[in-house]
Design a protein that fits this description.
Number of helices: 6
Helix content: under 10%
CATH topology of the largest domain: Maltoporin, Chain A
Number of strands: 40
Strand content: over 45%
Structural class: mainly beta
């Protein structure tokens, strides 16, 4: 072959190569799926159909592939993907192909393929003469609060979008726009807030952080203030019996808080500064920073500080309506993720908190001993340290099989006084949970087995009495999940060997049946038990001159036996289109029956608090119906009604539980303007709460001027907030709380004589403060 022939052949090959390269394109399409098995199936089908490369991600339901258009067309590949069971934006899988998928792969189907946020933006390079797409930007508008359609239990996923609707300075304020959880003040002196769910106090709800025990034990009264709102990445709220994997203490449900972390699909570093202030002397600063360290490591630095400096007394009783003081809260999170490679992932966390509060009469000096001054004061100093780790391993080639181990160490100390009463408490707690998950034959049959260990050491001083105890609780558990074409059954049980409460058996069951793709029926049943920390959990009544009396029943914990209850629930979830948009109606009914309970009796005498074990019956019936609708674009409306019937047998007979309204109404309206290219938009949010009358404790043993009625009046509160995003980096918000101005006029009985027999700051059924206005700003960089 001569020189000219070789040169001609080389030129032809070069032209062919260029032509071939020009036919190579990169495309992205929306393909429905759920899990790693879906990922493998979709990518295999794409490669088999002729794609050069294929990568599908579950987070945004997106398949990215390269292909040679001279050899294969996109439609051919998408058709092949549909034939293996996965709907995509061009082809829909046949019913048989969809049904043949493993249960874990059964994604939610609709009559139309719904693109995330109904947008698919293509950006091309006009200078190139090829069909290559340089980039595809997919955005998905995340629901603020979504009811999980896949889970057997009734679970609400609350995103950071929901938390932006209100001030959300801490976890207690994160439910102001939520219809399921009731938030109320429990004391007129310390200003603490408590949650209630299914008509029962917060102590019957399992409160976890990163699926680890969080607000329990000595942290019960003030623990909601220990998780700043700006630290929260999301909340999962389970109504009714939750999984046995997380322990035995859940009776009315579980609230799990996830801390802010770097997301796998967004590896850029981000720092946010939040500044907040209200018109009553509260200021707050938050700094959150999430950043990648490498491809597999990322970290979060979380800082929080707040201070309350104003003397707020809106009812003119000479007592502070909320305590003054400060909090410093610091956390560091370190995460390792190599689940796709080695199969290992790990999460480390460390947290330190120092909280100091002073309350009582205006002018009280905390530096002077109470016995040396005439003004009544309350001082609460809390130190808390936590160290935790979660490590998991996913077996290679078996994405359904994993092993996880969680550990947490907590030290909590409270030094406090309420007038002339001292309360000191120390708690050292260690928690460990080992979980193995796999399948029986196929993914229709999943199971979890494991072992847990809980160690609690308490040392409490109240007045002149010391109470010490150590609880050790090794436990074993198993949970089985059966998934059918239209149903999911999760049943589990655990046995715990409590050194003081004896061996406890805890069975639980959740069942979901899809009557239609848009109609979901659920039932649940389960048992839970817990040991009561009567001093820590009753601090709302320490700011009074009630004398504490424990009626010993022969138990090993303060002379009392553990609390045991059964919870049963049923719910119906219906989705439908209204005004061409998604609308959801949810109705549920739950009943809690106590087999044993530690009763806090405020009725026997207005000068006493009695603690004793239940003799008789105690129950809580809860009915709720909720309607979520988006009548027009960017406008969301949520309305709910709740009915509670809660009663127990006191020494004086069967009575309604005090401070629990039989009827409650709720409405939330949220609107936002369209976001501009620079990220500018307005948001408006308002929440109305209607609270019916509540039974009040019996105070007839007091003189007439220090008695309260049998029932409180009904009232309404209104909260509202306006926020302006000036860009993706700057947000300013302005809001008001209790705009109706309703206030409990007499929040403290005999406030003029706080050392007398009739002083009582625990008879709170409504807001203590009138309108409160706040302003805040967020900076991101």
């Amino acid at each position: 072959m001569n020189y000219l022939s070789r040169k001609l052949m080389f030129s032809v090959l070069l032209v062919c190569s260029v032509f071939s390269f020009a036919q190579t394109v990169t495309e992205q399409f929306l393909v429905k799926g759920n899990c790693n098995m879906c990922k493998a199936r979709i990518e295999k089908a794409a490669l088999k159909a002729g794609a050069t490369t294929a990568n599908w991600t579950a987070n945004n339901q997106t398949l990215t592939m390269t292909l040679d258009e001279s050899k294969v067309k996109c439609d051919d590949i998408l058709k092949q993907i549909a034939e293996v069971g996965h709907d995509n934006e061009k082809f829909k899988a046949s019913e048989d192909a969809y049904k043949n998928l493993p249960p874990c792969c059964l994604y939610t189907r609709g009559s139309d393929f719904e693109k995330p946020n109904d947008t698919l933006e293509h950006h091309s390079d006009s200078d190139k003469k090829t069909n290559q797409i340089e980039g595809v930007k997919l955005t998905r508008e995340k629901e603020a609060t979504a009811i999980s359609k896949k889970e057997a239990g009734l679970i609400f996923n609350i995103s950071s979008k929901e938390l932006l609707k209100a001030a959300c300075c801490n976890l207690s304020e994160s439910f102001e726009t939520n219809a399921t959880v009731d938030v109320s003040f429990s004391n007129a002196v310390t200003g603490t807030k408590q949650l209630k769910m299914l008509g029962l106090d917060q102590k019957y709800t399992l409160l976890t952080k990163e699926q680890l025990p969080e607000i329990r034990g000595l942290a019960s009264p003030y623990g909601l203030n220990f998780i700043p709102g700006k630290w929260i990445g999301g909340i999962q709220l389970t109504k009714g019996g939750s999984t046995v994997v997380n322990g035995y203490e859940s009776i009315t449900g579980q609230i799990n808080t996830e801390l802010l972390k770097t997301h796998d699909d967004d590896k850029k570093a981000e720092t946010e500064i939040n500044l907040f202030s209200d018109n009553n002397g509260r200021v707050e600063a938050n700094v959150t920073s999430t950043s990648p360290i490498s491809d597999k490591w990322n970290q979060s630095v979380l800082l929080h500080g707040n201070g309350t400096f104003g003397d707020t007394d809106m009812n003119d009783d000479a007592f502070l309506d909320r305590p003054k003081g400060s909090q410093l809260n610091v956390a560091y999170l370190l995460n390792y993720n190599d689940l796709q490679g080695s199969g290992f992932g790990s999460h480390f966390g460390i947290n330190y908190l120092k909280d100091e509060r002073t309350a009582g009469q205006i002018g009280f000096n905390k530096r002077i001993p109470q016995k040396d001054q005439s003004l009544y004061g309350v001082g609460i100093d809390i130190s808390r340290f936590q160290l935790w780790n979660k490590t998991g391993y996913v077996f290679k080639g078996k994405p359904y099989q994993s092993l996880g181990w969680m550990n947490q160490l907590t030290y909590h100390q409270q030094d406090s006084f309420f007038g002339l009463r001292n309360y000191f408490g120390k708690e050292t707690s260690y928690y460990s949970n080992l979980i193995f998950e796999s399948i029986l034959g196929n993914t229709n049959n999943k199971y979890k087995v494991g072992a847990s260990f809980l160690y609690d050491k308490y040392d409490e001083d109240y007045l002149l009495d010391n109470y010490k105890r150590t609880e050790t609780v090794p436990g074993l558990f198993a949970e089985y999940t059966l998934t059918g074409e239209k149903f999911t059954l999760v049943t589990g049980a655990r046995v715990d060997f409590h050194n003081l409460a004896g061996t406890q058996f805890t069975p639980r069951m959740n069942f979901k049946y899809d009557l239609t793709p848009k109609t979901i029926f659920r039932i649940s049943a389960g048992r839970g038990f817990r040991t009561a920390n009567i001093f820590a959990e009753s601090q709302a009544y320490f700011a009074s001159n009630r004398q504490i009396q424990i009626i010993n029943s022969g138990g090993a914990i303060y002379g009392l036996k553990p609390e045991i209850a059964w919870n049963y629930g049923v719910s119906l979830q219906q989705e439908f289109k209204l005004f061409g948009r998604k609308s959801t109606v949810l109705a549920d009914f739950f009943r809690t029956d106590f087999q044993n309970q530690v009763v806090t009796d405020l009725d026997e005498s207005a000068q006493k608090i009695l603690f004793y074990n239940l003799e008789g019956k105690s129950f809580a019936n809860s009915f709720q119906t909720q309607w979520d609708i988006q009548p027009v674009k960017n406008l969301e409306f949520r309305v709910a009604y709740k009915y509670y019937d809660v009663a127990l047998d006191y020494l004086s007979g069967l009575k309604k539980v005090p401070f629990m309204a039989k009827h409650r109404g709720f409405a939330n309206l949220a609107y936002s303007t369209n976001k501009t290219e620079k990220g500018r938009f307005w948001s408006f949010d308002t929440t109305l709460n209607l609270v019916g009358k509540q039974r009040l404790p019996n105070t007839k043993s007091n003189p007439a001027e220090f008695q309260i009625g049998d029932y409180s009046p009904s009232y309404a509160t209104l909260n509202a907030q306006i926020s302006r995003n000036f860009s993706e980096k700057i947000r300013v918000y302005l809001g008001g709380e209790n705009l109706t101005g309703y206030q409990q006029k007499v929040a403290i009985l005999d406030a003029g004589n706080p050392f007398g027999n009739y002083f009582d700051g625990g008879m709170v059924y409504a807001p203590i403060m009138k309108q409160n206005f706040y302003v805040g700003v967020d900076f991101k960089f």
